[in-house]
Amino acid sequence: MSKATAFGFYGSRRKAHLPAIVAFAGLICSFPASFQGQDVVRAQDLAASATADGAKLSPGSPPHLTAIELGDLHMARRRYQAALEAYRQADLDNPEIWNKIGIASQQLFLLPEAKKSYEMSLKMNPKNADVLNNLGTVYYSMQQYGNAEKLYRKALKVRPKSALIYKNLGTDLLAANKFKKGWDCYQAALAIDPDVFERMNILRIGEPTPAQQRGAMSYYLAKSYVLAGMPDLAVNYLRMAIDEGFADRKKIMADKELASLHGVTSFEQLLSEQRMQSSSSGSGTSGPGSSGAAPVVSR
Predict the structure, then answer these.
(1) In angstroms, rounded to a whole number, what is the distance separating the alpha carbons of residues 255 and 31?
(2) Which of 67, 116, 188, 280 has the most CB atoms around it within 10 Å of its CB?
(3) pLDDT tens across 15-71, in order?
(4) Boundaries of domain holding 207
(5) Torsion over CA: 15, 161, 109, 90 (sign)
């Protein structure tokens, strides 16, 4: 995996076509479901209590913190190596610990270790939807889209109303050029949770991906937002698709699913910009874009 891959603990994103820390690929831990905030809050509360008693918080063994709590605190502070070391000191007979080890390993781009950790967790609890999702994000990062799809579908059998897993499955299918199926999954995700692509409190996995692939994901996400009645977000992602060279004014004008955007100020402005650019000597594309579609790991 390229060192350009970036996990954001809170998964910062770009507004409009500005930063959204993921480039399509890997979940989010922001894989590419989320590392739940209650673990962080509990660890921070305990740490605050310890320091209030006059104890100094150190990377080693802060007073009153278990290995799991210490690991969660390090994760909250993005100290992933320290988190990994703390989790390894916990009871390894617990499948949740192996899931946490897997997440921390992904943050450090240690895909083989993350894969083994998730597999260990699944040996203990084969029907954990979060871990099935997370293992899927590892295969996605390895560009083994078929294996990732199988795991996401297994996760959905356990948790059929998970917007996050539908989101990850949709991103995987689009990466495999299964555009209609991927689009269907994006629509399913938005129907369950309209904010799933924009939420920032999730671990995302962002990886450098071919511009055409990023553009396709942005384009179909834009179409999904149109059908969900969110025109402003639709235009934002259309702009990303254009920047990546996947879409142009002609393609957009011919797409019947985008017809309802006519009359929306931001959409008309986008078309106007495209008319001006097409009449000029040519236009470059922006650098690697990002999108809320990047896969996300579950905790």
Answers:
(1) 30
(2) 188
(3) 332 222 222 223 344 333 334 444 445 555 555 554 444 444 445 455 578 999 999
(4) 6-33+91-228
(5) positive
Domain count for the chain, please give it: 1
The 10s digit of each residue's pLDDT in 102-120 is 999 999 999 999 999 999 9
Tokens in use for 167? Answer: 């989101």
Question: H or E segment at 118?
Answer: helix 111-124
- DSSP string spanning 252-279? HHH-GGGGGGTT-HHHHHHHHHHHHHHH
Residue type, 65: L
CA 58/CA 169 separation, integer angstroms: 40
Give the DSSP H or E segment for 188: helix 179-192
Distances (CA, A) of 270 to 218, 240, 243, 277: 15, 11, 11, 11
Structure token pair of residue 190: 């938005």
Query: Residue 14 carries which side chain, given as an amino acid letter?
Result: R
For the entire predicted model, the pTM comes to 0.75
Instruction: Convert the pLDDT of each residue in 155-183 to its tens digit.
Output: 999 999 999 999 999 999 999 999 999 99
- The reply to whether 197 falls in a domain is yes
Q: CATH number, domain at 115?
A: 1.25.40.10
